[in-house]
Amino acid sequence: MLFGLLTGRMDAVASAALEGAGDAVDLCLGIAGAICLWSGLMELMRRSGLMDGLSRLLRPVLIRLFPESEKIPGALDALSINVSANLLGLGNAATPAGIKAAKLLRGEGEAGGGLVRLVVLNTASVQLIPATVCALRASAGARQPFDILPAVWLASAFSVTAGLIAERILRRFFK
Fold it and tell me: Does residue 149 lie within any of the structural domains?
């Protein structure tokens, strides 16, 4: 605004500000619609039992990654829901289960290896369907918002692998 006043182009600045505000509202509505769609799909999966099936498929991997979770009631369920939602690209739906899993894995003491691994998995977030990113791309006018899938899969695999290796190496130095 100061630049607009100094250059005498306040009308252009005001016009750009209003246009940007309108674009922001359009983007928010597009994302909100996609989040509602995917959250509804997640709820349908939960009610139909598909989420439980996905959780059962993930349990062997999760038990290997989080061996302490078998001893903590509810931890494996929260981990399964969190990882399942992240796989589907539903970070917002994964958050409550992630928080519950983090609280259970933390227990009474300091952050242990299980909690650190959970943070690594949530930060790297392996996604089979990056729903939010694709919704952003669709809102921005991308003709094929899902054409990024191979890149997302590759980047997710590398980031999770690097994070888990780093956690394992650093755990040896900082107990």
Answer: yes
The angle at the Cα of 141, spanning 140 to 146, to the nearest 5 degrees, equals 90
Torsions phi, psi for 88 (to 5 deg): -85, 5
Domain region containing 71: 39-173
**What span, in angstroms and rounded, lies between the C-alpha atoms of 156 and 115?**
19
pTM beyond 0.70: the answer is: no
For residue 13, tell me if it sits in a domain. Answer: no
34 CB-near residues (< 8 Å, 6+ apart): 131, 132, 134, 135, 138, 139
| Each residue's pLDDT tens digit, 109-139 | 666 778 888 888 888 877 887 877 887 888 7
Q: How many domains does the chain have?
A: 1
Asked if 156 and 125 count as a contact pair (C-beta separation under 8 A), the reply is: yes
Which of 5, 104, 16 has its CA nearest to residue 62? 104
- 13 CB burial (10 A radius; 0-12, 13-18, 19+): middle
The backbone region for 8, taken as left when phi is positive above 0, alpha when psi lies in -120 to 50, beta otherwise, is left
Beta-carbon contacts of 128 under 8 Å, excluding residues fewer than 6 positions away, are 87, 88, 89, 153
Tell me if 11 is assigned to some domain: no
Cβ neighbours around 114 below 10 Å, total? 22
